[in-house]
Amino acid sequence: MSQTDPLITANGLGLEVAGRQLLHDITLELRRDEIVTVIGPNGAGKTTLLRLLLGLTRPTHGNVWRQPGLRLGYMPQRMQVDPSMPMSVLRFLQLGNERVDAPAAHEALARVGAARLARASLADLSGGEMQRVLLARAAARRPQLLVLDEPTQGVDVGGQGEVYQLIASLRDELNCGVLLVSHDLHVVMAATDRVLCINQHICCHGHPEQVSRDPAFIELFGDKVAPYTHQHNHEHDLGGDIVHDQGCSHRDNGNGSETA
Fold first, then answer.
1. What angle do the packed helices 102-111 and 127-139 form, to 10 degrees?
2. What's the rounded Cα separation, in Å, for the pair 236 and 17?
3. CA angle, corner 107, sides to 146 and 91, nearest 5?
4. Model pLDDT, residue 242
5. Element counts in the chain: helices (H) and strands (E)
6. Is the torsion defined by CA of 50, 10, 144, 175 positive or negative?
């Protein structure tokens, strides 16, 4: 299997439940070295599409082909942790995965800037810390495809751009593909290679700037969403607080984004 062959191919994919069409006629390919972001309004079928592509739900129409032996890393949208559960972050990364020993778990945490959390209790993590730990767990097996459902859930606005920069770094380091669902339109449109806008079907797709001008996209989100970059002259700690503050700047790439 060559580097240019698709990791996953979906043809005419659809799902119908109790007579209701949740998704229909989804055709796409996912490849290495590419970040593909799925966007759409609430109820558009974004998470359902991920489940179909991962084989967690069986489609009622079309088919999904996955590269034989494909290694997947999955980060769920959210995870509820029982505060009484005595589990360390290190143990959580190894749980149910014989491929991840202690050195690999430490390496995965260091990769996402969370090495100091190895001995911390899972129940004591902040929202930003939990997202980094979940990302580390998804990347621990050195997957060929990272699948991330709302990876900045619980992360403040200041830290969202850094999470997407981290995802791009993981893509480069692991030589993997990335499929993610996000609602952070301004930030993610500047941090992805290809956008797939869905609302039960594919409304439009392509490069972020191309999609942001598509009439179907504008009908769903308006004409005030355009890619922008958030240029940091400061850093955030794992809890999202600013350290080494030297100010920050925003650069507008279109209508509707701010400049500071």
1. 120
2. 43
3. 85
4. 45
5. 8, 13
6. negative
| pLDDT digit string, tens, across residues 182-240 | 887 877 777 899 999 999 999 999 998 888 889 998 988 887 555 544 444 445 445 44
**Cα angle value 26/207/240 (rounded, 5°):** 100
What CATH architecture applies to the domain 8-252?
Answer: 3-Layer(aba) Sandwich (3.40)
SS3 45: coil
Secondary structure (DSSP) of 119-159: TSBGGG--HHHHHHHHHHHHHTT--SEEEEESTTTT--HHH
How many other β-carbons are positioned within 10 Å of the β-carbon of residue 98? 6
Longest dimension (CA), the chain: 56
C-alpha distances (whole Å) from 53 to each of 47, 67, 98, 248 are: 10, 12, 24, 38
Is pTM beyond 0.85 here?
no
Distance, in Å, from the CA atom of 251 to the CA atom of 76, rounded to the nearest integer, reads: 31
Break the chain down into helix, strand, coil percent, rounded to 5: 30, 30, 40
Integer angstrom CA distances of residue 246 from 111, 233, 242, 260: 25, 5, 10, 13
Do 30 and 145 touch, CB atoms closer than 8 A? yes
**How far apart are alpha carbons 71 and 176 in whole angstroms?**
10
At 241, is the secondary structure helix, strand, or coil?
coil
- Name every residue whose Cβ is closer than 8 Å to that of residue 61 and which is 6 or more positions away in sequence: 12, 13, 14, 15, 16, 24, 25
Residues of the chain with pLDDT under 50: 228-234, 236-237, 239-260
